Amino acid sequence: PLGSVPVRAWVPPAHPLVAECSGAATVEARRLLQERLVLPSRRSVSRGVIDSFIGSAGLSLGPHVECDDTGTLCALARAGRAVALMTELQPDRLVGFDIVAGEESIGGVPLVAAWRPGHFAGQELADLAERFRGFIAGSLL
After folding, report:
1. What pTM was computed for the model?
2. What is the mean pLDDT of each run of 10 residues along the chain (141 residues)?
């Protein structure tokens, strides 16, 4: 495994959640569901993570907007139109929150690298996977 990219809630710096959470890195799912949300469609792996977490917390999504384009998710959040739930690592001009329900955290999308044994570029692929693992780890700090 290369790691896991967390699903996070992203808002612009002036969003009320930033002041309300007063420096905390997390937001409660129950509180988050009171906001207008934009999230990936059910075709997305990250949406499965979101739906599973919300359901296991005994909650349900209300009205929301679906979009599979990360750039559009970011733009809607930056414009203050919605809170974006996505796996983008560090979008510009947005503040991210880990999503929790009590002691439980939403988790993320697992990333793996795989290739056929004996692949002619096996070592290069292994080196690339290791560099990518470092990039992911560094991006989550």
Report:
1. 0.89
2. 93 95 92 97 96 97 95 97 94 95 95 96 97 88 68
Q: What are the chain's domains?
A: 3-139 (3.40.190.290)
**Nearest Cα residue to 83 out of 65, 71, 106:** 65
CB 95 within 8 A of CB 68: no
The rounded distance, in Å, linking the Cα atoms of 22 and 17 is: 8
Return the DSSP state at 7.
Answer: P
**Tokens 């690298």 label which residue?**
113
Residues 6+ apart with CB under 8 A from 28: 100, 101
Phi and psi, residue 56, nearest 5°: -70, -20
Angle made by CA atoms 65, 78, 33, in degrees to the nearest 5: 45
In the DSSP assignment, the letter for residue 109 is E
